[in-house]
Amino acid sequence: MQALILLGLVGLAAQLVDGSLGMAYGVTSTTLLLAIGTNAAAASATVHLAEIGTTLASGLSHWRFNNVDWKVVAKIGIPGAGGAFAGATFLSSLSTEMAAPIMSLILLPLGLYIIIRFTACGLPRDNLGKPLRKRFLAPLGVVAGFVDATGGGGWGPVGTPAILASGRIPPRKVIGSIDASEFLVAVAASIGFLVGIGSKNINFAWVGVLMLGGVIAAPVAAWLVRHIPPRFLGSAVGGVIVLTNVRTLLRSDWIDASGNVQAVAYIALAVIWAAAIAYSVREYRRDKKRKSVEAKLHRRTEEEPTPA
User: Fold this and answer.
1) Which of 123, 144, 132, 308 is nearest to 230 (CA)?
2) Tell me: the pLDDT tens digits for 150-176?
3) What residue segments make up the domains of the chain, in order of their start?
4) Which chain positions lie within coiled-coil regions (predicted)?
5) 101 neighbors 254 (Cβ within 8 angstroms)
6) Which residue has the higher pLDDT, 135 or 234?
7) Cβ atoms within 10 A of the Cβ of 127, count?
8) How many other CB atoms are there within 10 angstroms of residue 274's CB atom?
9) Backbone CA torsion sign across 21, 27, 29, 32
10) Cα torsion at 193, 204, 12, 119 (round to 10°)?
11) Do residues 108 and 254 touch, judged by C-beta distance below 8 A?
């Protein structure tokens, strides 16, 4: 019973983060399942079955708060489903030990770009409103879906930073669209796992409690992302990407850093991340105050009588 309660709380916390930042549900939940001895395929299958419910609830919640661009959902979600099915059916014979650090080397520069870009300059506006092309979203969806199924998580970490970096839609719509499209990925991956490994290695009680925790958290997360300033959100997402991928690289066979080195690196990154978020909040408040003053001056100018 304690294990089920813990899994439910993990599902709730993971969905709060995922629904607010567009990533982390799969990575968080899969990490816990692997830590208690679940094999990789069964862990990923359990998480993706739970995500059918959590992503549906999250997508509907984001839709209610107008956080979803349905054109983006279709362009990335359908190819993503194909990639997820392929990744799920081949997971039992595919090693991701080499793929993880390679993917981290790709994601880490994206995370650094996002945290620097949003912290220093705020929301990129030069491309805001321009359409995201299918030739960009379709390959991204295939890769993200494949990584998500084989690694137990990755749809958000791959998809969110790539679309955020384009600066073409606001961060809240990036997160809402990624969460909504993940429903297609979860369904396809689950079908692939059921075909590949069957249901005998899947604990459906675990699926249920993970799903329940995520469904409870989904509307709260969708409300949060609607009200979090884009500048703060970009800095927060960038920090998550950097921390996650530095952790993967330090623990990989390529580096195999000692515990002390890892601890120092995490503390240093956490301090820098906290400073970036604090700076973003300060600049957001300054910008908001400046706009308020400009609006008052504009109204005062309009109210002044014109000379005869």
Assistant:
1) 123
2) 776 778 878 887 887 777 788 888 888
3) 2-303
4) none
5) yes
6) 135
7) 12
8) 12
9) negative
10) -10
11) no
Cβ(146)–Cβ(86) below 8 Å: yes
Question: How confident is the model over 51-70, as pLDDT tens digits?
Answer: 898 889 888 988 988 889 99
Write 256-264 long-range contacts (CB < 8 A, 24+).
none
- Rounded Cα distance between 3 and 296, Å, is 56
- Rg of the chain on CA atoms, in Å: 21
Number of other CB atoms surrounding residue 307 within 10 Å: 4
Residue 124, class by beta-carbon neighbours within 10 Å (0-12 exposed, 13-18 middle, 19+ buried)? middle
**Residue at token pair 């679309």:** 163
Contacts (Cβ under 8 Å, ≥6 apart) of 209? 4, 5, 7, 8, 11
pTM: 0.68
> Tokens for 180?
């909504």
**Distance set, CA 262 to CA 47, 96, 111, 142, 231 (Å):** 27, 22, 19, 32, 29
